[in-house]
Design a protein that fits this description.
heterodimer, A: mainly beta, four-stranded antiparallel β-sheet, B: mainly beta, six-stranded mixed β-sheet, five-stranded antiparallel β-sheet
Chain lengths: ~110, ~120
């Protein structure tokens, strides 16, 4: 079974631009979560989608948004990029997102803002 | 809301020595707890999970963790460290949000293994 795939792996943008990151979950998984990882803040939860609906949201500004498609693939969008948005963005999937199910992570997209 | 505290941002052990990574959680109900490992430039991999079936949980690569409700702890151990165990380790708890569960991660502990 293929794992979680995130594209692109690396991305360089400048302040004010916008970016879209993509995540393909494990086949059959319907829950997709996004996390931001930085040296200073660690792993922070962005949001979770299940069957195309956002079920949970972390404490991030509205510049961070996402969506999920009918095939469970998910995209995350960040608008008006700031220097502080430089981070590793991780996507994780699970079969149904219930509490006892572990998350399966992709290798992340490393976003650098110049 | 649930939270997880990992004691020690860095732990250094010699090859062959015991590995002990500490994790305490805050929860008023029996939690779902996990340990993940992250190698450089990679995502997180599940080491083991506790879902109330047994207090001693065995995971991959020789790791295990013991759930102690009285201490609200879920420490990760390995009897004998190997160089390949050098990585960052995250303790995590499932937290029920308004719409479903979300995973709350600890700050992580970076394990160094000396030859």
């Amino acid at each position: 079974k293929a794992g979680v795939t995130q594209t692109p792996r690396y991305l360089i943008k400048t302040r004010g631009q916008q970016v879209t990151l993509s995540c393909s979950p494990i086949s059959g998984h319907r829950s997709v979560s996004w996390y931001q990882q930085t040296p200073g803040q660690g792993l922070q939860f962005l949001f979770e989608y299940f069957s195309e609906t956002q079920r949970n949201k972390g404490n991030f500004p509205g510049r961070f948004s996402g969506r999920q498609f009918s095939n469970s693939r998910s995209e995350m969008n960040v608008s008006t990029l700031e220097l502080g948005d430089s981070a590793l963005y991780l996507c994780a999937s699970s079969a149904s997102g219930t509490g006892n199910q572990p998350q399966h992570f992709g290798d992340g997209t490393r976003l650098s803002i110049l | 809301a649930q939270s997880v505290t990992q004691l020690g941002s860095h732990v250094s052990v010699s090859e062959g020595a015991l590995v002990l990574l500490r994790c305490n959680y805050s929860s008023s109900v029996p939690p779902y707890l996990f340990w993940y490992v992250q190698y450089p430039n990679q995502g997180l991999q599940l080491l083991l999970k506790y879902t109330s079936a047994a207090t001693l949980v065995k995971g991959i690569n020789g790791f295990e963790a013991e759930f102690k409700k009285s201490e609200t702890s879920f420490h990760l151990t390995k009897p004998s460290a190997h160089m390949s165990d050098a990585a960052e380790y995250f303790c995590a708890v499932s937290d029920r949000g308004t719409g479903g569960f979300k995973t709350i991660f600890g700050a992580g502990t970076r394990l160094f293994v000396k030859a």
